[in-house]
Each structure stands twice: as C-alpha cells, then as structure tokens.
Design goal:
It is a single chain. The radius of gyration is 25 Å and the shape is elongated. The protein has about 425 residues and is α/β, with parallel strands linked by helices. About 30% of the residues lie in helices and about 20% in strands.
C-alpha cells in the first residue's frame, strides 16, 4: 500500500483507541504492532454518563456486552470512526443511530462458536448423568454410586432451536456422539450431516431429550420458552439456554422443573445480570440441585477471546486504514484493493437519489480525476470509496465535505 501521508484521517500518533471490559490483549497488541501508541485498555464497563465523558476524542471504541452505546453516547463521540463489539452480538449498540452518524460497527459472529458448542455438549452430559447431584453428595461426604436416572447421550435426540453459527456447530458435535439431531429455525437452513429440521417448535419440543437454545434476542424470541411451550416438552427432557436471558420465562421454567416435566436445566444467561465480577447475583433457580447455573461464560475461553480479539481488531484496522467495511453492521460492505499512485477518500452520505451524480459533477467541475469509484448502499446510507489523483485529493476532500447529504468524509491514504 502507498505510504501514509500526514493528510490522512488516521495519523497514528493522534489516533485514540479505547477498549473496555477486559478485551483480549491480542487486540491491544494488534494496534500497537500497527504503530498506534494511544491504546487504553480498561477492565470495567461504563455507564452512559461515564462513557459520554470518556468517548470525547476517541476514534476507535472497543466494548463487549456490558457497555451500552446509546444515542447520547454517539452524539458525544464526535471523533468516533468505528466501534468494535468483541463478542457475538451487537444488541448493546444503537445500530440505527450509529448508521445515521456513519459510525462503522463490527463484531465477531463466529469466533467463539466452538467454545459455546463444547459447553452445550458438556452441560448435556452433566444433566443426563445427574452429575450435579452426585458431585454435591461427594462434597458432603456421601458416596452415591448408582445408575438410577443416569443416561448416555448416544441414541438420544437433541433439539436445537436456532440453527445458526453456534447451533450448527452443536449439531456436528452431537452427531459425532451418536445423537439424533433435530432443529427448528425461523429461516430455511441447510442441515449438516444427518440432522433434520422440524417444521414447528411444538414438534421439536415433543421429541427432544435435550433442548438447546441458540436464538438472538428479538421481539419474536422473548419468552419463547414459556408455560405453553413447556407443556409441549417431552417429559423428562433437559433444557439448555446459552443464548439470551430473555428467551426463557424463568418462573415457568422453575415450575416445569419442580413438576418433573423437565428433569434438568442449564443456564448461562439471565434476564438480569450483574454489571461486574463480584456483584450479587440472584435467580429463582438457585438451590435447585437439577439446575446448572454459570455466569455468562459460554464464550469465555482463552482461545475464543484471542480469536475475537484478532477478528475484530483486524476489521477495525482494515476500516481505519483502507476503508474496508466487510462485516460492518452499519456501513455497506466494500472490500477494495489499494490503488497505486492515488489517494483514497471515503464518503458516507444519506441514501437519497442523485448523490453520486452530484459527487461526480462536483469533482468533474473542478477537474479532479477519479481513478476508481465504488458505491454500496443500505436503507439509510450510501458508502462511496473514491480513488483520486494524488495531486488533487486534498481539494476533493474539502469539496465533498460541503456536498449536500454528506454525513462524513475522510481520506485514508
């Protein structure tokens, strides 16, 4: 790539990067290796008031799931180019407002799928073998060696609700253990291996020995496991929720466990979760010997966090230095090779008719030669990448900033 000019939008000595919530050192090192020195990494999340103060002058912001990016935060973040969500989801970011402001938001939808899938299989074994009861008895000095109610996974049916990145990984691992795999998804998905799809949630729940949830938090998924749907469950099945806390009606789940409709459950996510380590945690399911509770650690392995750190930081650097927006949840996806002997300008604008024509007319009027041009739009904004003759790029940036419907313009090299 051509050498970076001092006129670019990312003079490395001036770019500020702020990482919150103990983001992997891999991400920090990626930026330092690339020559950025102002990289601050904090262990805690921030509430809105603290974040409004902290984001002033920050160009790249990295968060996990406990920091919420609200319209007020985005309004205060006048220098912000991009947000990296070092996790699977982006629910914690107001994506509509980020889109309106032309802030690129990236996440890591695939990097911790294996960690979560392995934990699902581990929980399945713990539940169908009734390991928690025997572990508790052993710690209390009671020898409880018996096979009553203890089963193998082999030959059992696992029902996967949500056959996306994690659900499909669970499918592969479960089949390797000799399980029959059924899945239900709101969208048509291609089965892996010998898995088969169920046409209704009721059908899946009625035939599954192990039920595992892998759906996003949407209006349609909130309390999708409730008193009614639990009445469809095969008696004695076990339920695993490593998706989102709001997906399960907890009082209804407790009743199903108490009545024996379900023989066990494992939860890693909850409707209300503590803000930080050491904070008090309460759940109606505490004290139930047939329930495995874990503190939202499905993706919390060293390997997963390193993969997430590498994945998201690479996306952030590619966008900052090359304008590559592949994987962004807010900016239309463009991935372009560098053009020699040019300067690259990024133009984000409101998606209204005629913008590209106005841009070209403006540049042509000032005799600015466009070597390469690329446009992609979504419902709200358009993203144009322009490779401009080197000698004219500074003038082009100034003109484009004044162009009607412009949200932001920057030169990347």
């Amino acid at each position: 790539m051509p050498a970076v000019s001092s006129k670019t939008s990312y003079p490395k000595e001036k770019i500020r990067i702020l990482f919150l919530e103990s983001i992997s050192k891999t991400a920090v090192q990626q930026f330092k290796n690339a020559g950025y020195q102002s990289v601050e990494s904090l262990h805690h999340a921030m509430d809105e008031a603290a974040l409004i103060k902290a984001v002033k002058g920050v160009h790249i912001l990295g968060i996990r799931s406990k920091t919420y990016i609200t319209p007020k935060v985005l309004e205060a973040a006048t220098s912000l180019q991009s947000i990296g969500c070092f996790c699977i989801g982006t629910n914690q970011v107001d994506l509509e407002e980020a889109t309106r402001k032309g802030v690129a938001v990236f996440n890591a939808p695939y990097s911790n799928t294996r960690s979560v899938a392995e934990m699902v299989i581990g929980a399945s074994v713990m539940l169908v073998r009734k390991i928690m009861d025997k572990n508790k008895a052993a710690h209390e000095g009671i020898w409880q060696k018996d096979a009553g109610g203890s089963h193998e996974l082999r030959g059992k049916t696992i029902g996967i609700i949500g056959y996306g990145n994690i659900g499909s990984q669970v499918s592969v691992l479960a089949e390797a253990l000799g399980m029959q795999v059924k899945f239900y998804d709101a969208e048509t998905k291609l089965p892996l291996g010998n898995a088969s799809d169920c046409k209704s949630l009721k059908n899946l729940l009625s035939v599954s020995d192990v039920i595992t949830l892998h759906v996003p938090q949407l209006p349609s998924t909130v309390q999708m496991i409730n008193k009614t749907t639990l009445s469809w469950v095969k008696k004695g099945a076990v339920l695993i929720n490593y998706a989102r806390g709001e997906v399960v009606d907890i009082p209804a789940l407790k009743q199903a466990l108490t009545s024996g409709r379900l023989s066990g459950a494992a939860l890693d996510v909850f409707p209300e979760e503590p803000e930080k380590n050491g904070d008090p945690f309460q759940s109606p399911l505490q004290g139930m010997s047939n329930v495995l509770l874990t503190p939202h650690i499905g993706g919390s392995t060293v390997e997963a966090q390193e993969n997430i750190g590498l994945d998201v930081s690479t996306k952030l650097l590619n966008y900052l230095e090359k304008g590559i927006s592949t994987g962004s949840k807010t900016i239309p996806a463009l991935a372009l090779p560098p053009q020699e002997h040019t300067h690259r300008i990024l133009h984000i604008h409101r998606n209204v008719p005629g913008v590209l024509g106005n841009v070209n007319s403006l540049l042509s009027k000032h005799k600015i030669n466009v070597v390469g041009q690329y446009l992609k739009t979504n419902d709200q904004i358009g993203y144009v990448v322009l490779d401009i003759d080197k000698h004219l790029s500074e003038n082009a940036v100034s003109l484009l900033k004044k162009s009607k419907d412009t949200i932001r313009v920057r030169s990347v090299y």
